[in-house]
Amino acid sequence: MKSPCHLMEGHLVFNERIIGYAVSKMERPVCIQLIAGWIENGEKQKVFVCANPHSLMIAEKDKVFKKALMDADLITPDGSGILLASKLLGGALISGLPAVLSSGN
Known about the structure:
This protein has helices at residues 28-40, 53-61, 63-71, 80-88, 99-102, and strands spanning 5-8, 11-18, 21-24, 48-51, 74-77.
């Protein structure tokens, strides 16, 4: 389980727990910079996930998918559902990295 705060490639990463998943509090430009650095450095074996409420609920029923999410290097909020969940749970997520943006479409 990832800690609420850790150092990842020179970036201090703060996570917030949403139903047990460590969702990053990093702002969009920092997430993009981090992911771009992985690509530029030729790092393979890096996994980042754009989590939305549907994917987190599916993971609760699919053990393989849940493990993939739990082991991901970076989980970013995808959409208003996760941001709303954060607010309702007393969290402070303010922005996300939409899957459409991260997929290059």
